[in-house]
Amino acid sequence: MSSKWMQVSGVLGLTAVVLGAYGAHAMKDSSDSMRETWRTASNYHFIHTMALVVSSTTFHGKKRNIVSSLFASGILVFCGSCYLVAFMNERKPYAQFAPIGGFLLMGGWVAFGFL
């Protein structure tokens, strides 16, 4: 039986592929800035989903839950904010959440290495 974090990783991996494909095809008419924002979200989404896979299979107990929670919530907040900015073609009010998500992702890496 897989852990809940592997299930979360599977869902986040699936959404990374779906949203990456959407950005590659449906964002062609968007501005360069918005396409770049979408690409940034997609790249961070993929990279941190793989970090979530590694943390959910390498760590156990409290460390696994802390690291995985930080990565998953960081993906949702940071990447979600960037996806919204690009999709809505408007920075405000969506971009204000990106720094929070960025700090969650950084916290995941700190916890990964030092907890």
Explain the overall architecture:
The chain has 115 residues and is mostly helical. The protein contains four helices and no strands. It has helices at residues 4-26, 32-58, 61-88, 98-114. Helix 3 (61-88) runs antiparallel to helix 4. The longest helix has 28 residues, at 61-88. The two termini are 26 Å apart. The mean pLDDT is 96.
Annotation keywords:
single chain, 115 residues, mainly alpha
Topology as H/E string? HHHH
What does the main sheet amount to?
A: none
Uncertain runs: none
Q: What is the rounded distance between the termini?
A: 26 Å
SSE class: mainly alpha
Any chance you could write out the topology, listing elements then pairs?
Blueprint lengths: L3 H23 L5 H27 L2 H28 L9 H17 L1
Helix pairs in contact: 1-2, 1-3, 2-3, 3-4
In short:
With 115 residues, the protein is mostly helical.
